[in-house]
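Quick one - inputs below.
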Amino acid sequence: MMLWYKAWRESRVRFFLSLGVWAILSVSLMYRAKLGFPPPERPDLPYSAWVWANIYGNMNPTVFIILVMILGLGGLQRERPVGTAAFTLSLPVSRMRLVGYVLQQVYFR
Amino acid sequence: MRYSMTPDPVLQTHNLTKRFGRIEAVSNLDMRVAGGRITGLLGRNGSGKSTTIKMLMGIMRPSSGAGTLLGRDIADASECRKSRERVAYVAEDKQTYGYMTVAEVIAFTRSFYSDWDTDSERRLLRQFELPLTRKVKALSKGMRTKLALLLALSRHAQLLILDEPSEGLDPVSIEELLLSLVVAAADGTTVFFSSHQIAEVERVADHVCIVDRGRLVADTSLEQIRQDYRRITFGFSTDPPPLHFSNPGVRSVHTDGRQVTVMADNNADDVIERGRSFGASTVESTPVSLRELFLSTVKEDVHHDALV
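Output:
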């Protein structure tokens, strides 16, 4: 449980940054919907299909990948330069578990 | 202090080696540390003390060789994790998580160990005057060291490993630290600490291992140094002949003009007799301090390397 807490504390700034980026993208999508839905070339396009195309089309998958990479940053490599790696690695926990908690947090987010 | 007749080793290494590229930080280290006592690992900066400790803790993988910590193989990750449950460790950096408060770091660390002692934690908090609500990144270096010590000393660990524990502490805090080590040993905890401060080791250790250039160059008890180690100075009325001391126990021989100094770790009487047989006119035998032993051992090592 405490490793969850540690992983959260270490990544929460990045999490809120990613949330902010996602919020901006969502607001811009709604704004575009007001201006450009339905598109003149496809007046019969359902709204859900338009939303789908806008989220998973264009550059958005790339943005998703970047956000996941930002959330996944950190772990032991990040601890080495600040000098806490020895403290973390001396805990009675396997390295697999240490890395696992970081990956789990990224996955759940 | 508790001693058993044949103390089991709490840690031992066999040909333990760590290479960083072409540099050999630890070189075929054979070391054995017995339980129930305070052992000081003495060496100059960069002599391989911290690297040895990191390998023992499973933080760093050895390049070759083997070792055990509390009877468990240090090369086996699972075994190493189990031994860490019973070992309290203070790393060279003494860094904990800067974004947490002192109270949070204590709560975080406490959650991993079943041998945590809340009374010791409270006592050390009072003794070290650590501010519970302050973030670690806002603590001074000395305070951070005290926090790292608190995290290690608040447990009933079987083995306490400290890497340069007094670094960054003021003289009063060093006194408190040394006292804490003696108290921990009296409570049955084996203490193994590295230092390049000879005075600290001399004050609290029962046993000393000296490493230089990644090799073990001396492994002896402080009691043996006091009882058996002698510096024997022979004076000659003319230039002395080339002296060959084949006696067991002779560690080094230095000639300076008409004076020959022999460092012996036992058999001082035989060495004196041998010196007299060479025609020495005066003989002076004095006990050897840890400082003298350390300096002579390390210098001898450097001299030997230069000759090779």
